[in-house]
Amino acid sequence: MTLTQLQKAELLLSLHVPGEPLIVTNVWDAITAKVVADTPDVKALATASHSISNVRGLQDGEGLSLDEAIIAATIIAGAVDLPVSADFEKGYAPDALGVTRNVRRLIEESGIVGINIEDSVGAEKTPQFDIETAAARVAAARVGADQSGIPLVINARVDTLAGGGAWDEAVARANAYLGAGADVIFFLGLTDENKVARAIEQVNGKISVIGAPGLVPLKRLAELGISRVSFGPGTLALTLAALQAAAANLTALGDYPTDLGFKFAL
């Protein structure tokens, strides 16, 4: 059954359950979206701006133009019938009014039902917008969603710990963004169980994190009460590593990899 955009947005929000985290395997084009969407038990998708930019030969950090970002999101959302959340970087605007305008465009033109929005000023994790400005930008994204009539799921990113900042500021930012209209806090820098547990205790809402080797295992994240796990550009790295290994094997006249026969189609 094909879902409407409104139904997809409502479904995406309902999938964020503390202790039963939504696992979103990040994708970057139509075929990766379809392959992941066709995988059993996958319930929603998320894009990764880093991957979308890099496969086009561009740097992350709004290396794409606004139009290019919306086109990429449209292609991905149009390839599947699952809810799709887009990494919308900083909203592709220098001010809150621009964030409102651009978020509304993204929703209305692409079919996207969720976004990540960052609180850092440039391509790095530091400096960040001051808390009031960053919260106002989250609020502006909510206004854009309200204008569109779609209850966009806003995953507001807190870069403080990843940028070397203080714990108390990170928590203050998280709660400010929730108060401004975010549905989930994308809390970077929760690198061990203690930090995850502290964040869940001190943040007044749902938390999403990055999963990667060396960080807290997925099952333990679920036990601790995380609501969402994504992998950012890690899924592109995984794909490229497999491709490079296969290229080395084939160049060395090795056996044909079994996955060379993987069947796919749009």
Account of the 3D structure:
It holds the Pfam family PEP_mutase. This protein has an 8-stranded parallel beta sheet with strand order 1-8-7-6-5-4-3-2. It has a single domain (about 5-240), classed as Alpha-Beta Barrel (TIM Barrel), CATH 3.20.20. It is globular. The protein has helices at about 5-15, 30-35, 50-55, 65-80, 95-110, 130-150, 165-180, 195-200, 220-225, 235-250, and strands at about 20-25, 45, 85, 115, 155-160, 185, 205-210, 230. It is built from 10 helices and 8 strands. It is α/β, with parallel strands linked by helices and about 270 residues long. Helices cover about 45% and strands about 10% of the residues.
CATH superfamily: Phosphoenolpyruvate-binding domains
Q: On the 0-100 scale, what is the average pLDDT?
A: 97
Q: What structural category characterises the helix and strand content?
A: alpha/beta
Query: What order do the strands of the largest sheet run in, or round the barrel if closed?
Result: 1-8-7-6-5-4-3-2
User: What is the string of SSEs from the N terminus onward?
Assistant: HEHEHHEHEHEHEHEHEH
